[in-house]
Specification:
With 253 residues, the protein is α/β, with parallel strands linked by helices. The chain has two domains: 175 residues, 3-Layer(aba) Sandwich (Rossmann fold), CATH 3.40.50; 60 residues, no CATH class. It has eleven helices and nine strands. A seven-stranded mixed sheet has the order 1-3-2-4-5-8-9, sandwiched between helices. A two-stranded antiparallel sheet has the order 6-7.
């Protein structure tokens, strides 16, 4: 599958993979800073953003999609950054083929299986009568009935676009993502990765707990951990300056 991507700057490539329900556009502000140091390539994974849709959706497929893109761009050495589901894709890619990866930046995602926790988001998405809305902002009250966090609602609303005059649609393939949720939440295979890695977590997030660190280090023995204060799961958006500093310190040392 040919993935949509945006490219900025020059230098050593830094490839960025967004999380579930996200897209490349979520990384605009961080990309602006990173592009001062790197050739930044921000990817829409399949069933998200402007990339094609498919019924086939699991981590090996997602990782191979990104690997095909890397090979098509003739990239030999690169850094790979992923947030949440994007981090899990990056881990799978490193397990499949670590050749050329100079470092992994893995944002608020561990290696364990996660329990279902997106039900309220999916209920909010399904509650929106897309064919009855005259503007995108009218969708927010429907989401608000299920999702308390304003930032999460705004994040989801960025996925809405006018497929034609008077008709809104999602850029994400909601039906496939919902069907494949067990796969999205699945544990990483037990295969060691020797690539230098940094795991960046939010202090207020529960995605990487203290008891998870030993299992992560078992699969990623050359890893380090950073906890960013006063940040939750969307670390890069909630504490951008601190996040960018840690990424640059890791990649440029």
């Amino acid at each position: 599958m040919k993935l949509f991507y945006r490219e900025y700057g020059k230098g050593t490539p830094l490839i960025i993979l967004h999380g579930l329900f996200g897209c490349a556009d979520n990384w605009q502000s961080q990309t602006k800073k990173f592009s001062e140091y790197f050739r930044v390539i921000v990817v829409d994974v399949r069933n998200h953003g402007r990339s094609p849709w498919s019924e086939d959706f699991d981590y090996p497929i997602l990782a191979k999609d990104v690997l095909v893109l890397i090979q098509s761009l003739e990239i030999k050495n690169y850094f790979l950054l992923g947030h949440s589901m994007g981090a899990k894709i990056a881990m799978h890619l490193a397990q499949i083929n670590a050749t050329g990866i100079q470092g992994l930046i893995l944002v608020d995602m561990g290696v364990k299986k996660y329990q279902p926790h997106h039900q309220h988001i999916l209920k909010g998405i399904h509650s929106i009568p897309l064919n009855k809305l005259s503007k995108r902002s009218e969708a927010e009250p429907y989401l608000a009935a299920y999702i308390d966090e304003v930032a999460t609602r705004q994040f989801l609303l960025k996925n809405l676009y006018w497929i034609e005059k008077g008709k809104l649609a999602w850029r994400m393939n909601v039906s496939v993502l919902e069907k494949q949720m067990p796969e999205i939440l699945s544990a990483l295979p037990q295969k060691e990765v020797l690539v230098p890695s940094i795991f960046i977590r939010g202090e207020n997030s529960n995605y990487i707990l203290e008891e998870d660190l030993a299992d992560i280090e078992y699969l990623f023995p050359d890893s380090e951990f950073v906890t960013i204060s006063n940040a939750g799961h969307w670390v890069h958006a909630e504490s951008p300056d601190s996040f960018i500093d840690h990424v640059l310190s890791f990649c440029l040392r």
